[in-house]
Amino acid sequence: MKQEDDVVKRIVSILRQEGATRVEVIPASGIVIDERVRLKCQVPLCDSYNRNLTCPPHAPSIDAFRKTLSLYTNAVIVQVSQPFDGVSDDAFALANRLHELINWGETEAFKAGYRFAVGLIGSCCRLCEECAAVNPGERCRFPFKARPSMSAMGIDVIATTEKAGLSVKFPVTDAVTWTGVILL
């Protein structure tokens, strides 16, 4: 157990050094799943619905994710934040930075023996300008980098971050915050 704690502490420390604004470790049981989150992918219809391989209806079902989540012990909640003027598109550049951090943390956890470590990002995957999902039968161009969002899995990001002592504010006014998670 001590060795596992040291691995998690090292990952948390490096995530902070690499630009994460906040990183907190909570029990995986603290992840809040709510079917209404997934409903918001369809009502109103999100522009990524059925147009992104990491979004619904391509993402695992909420029931399947709920069962799988019960097999994890810890959740490393990662946030990146920056001031937002409401005009520029820098918010999505920050989402991409979160995606990089989540992938890095997942890889490091895997190397350290967490063979089932999995990362989930904020927002939809934006690795490609146009996802392969729009072309039936085409496969993901970046299968080892693409990750679904927390919301695509039915995770209530606001309730989960509150449980971790963090926050996300909507609507975005003066600062944008993206949240991801690495399950261990």
List keywords for this structure.
184 residues; alpha+beta
Layout of helices and strands, plus pairs?
Layout: H1 2-17, E1 22-27, H2 35-39, H3 62-69, E2 74-83, H4 90-111, E3 118-120, H5 157-163, E4 175-183
Helix pairs in contact: 1-4
Describe this structure in words.
The protein is α+β, with helices and mostly antiparallel strands and 184 residues long. It has one domain. It is 32% helix and 15% strand. The chain has 5 helices and 4 strands. A 4-stranded antiparallel beta sheet has the order 1-2-4-3, sandwiched between helices. α1 (2-17) packs antiparallel against α4 (90-111).
Strand order of the largest sheet: 1-2-4-3
- How far is the first residue's CA from the last residue's CA? 13 Å
DSSP strand count: 4
> What is the domain tally?
1
Gyration radius from CA atoms, angstroms: 16 Å
Largest sheet: 4 strands, antiparallel
H/E series: HEHHEHEHE
**Helix percentage range:** 25-40%
Q: Regions with pLDDT < 50 over 5+ consecutive residues? A: none
Q: Which structural class matches the secondary elements?
A: alpha+beta
Mean pLDDT over all positions: 92
Our count of helices gives 5
Strand content: 15-25%
Global outline: globular
What oligomeric state do these chains adopt?
Answer: single chain
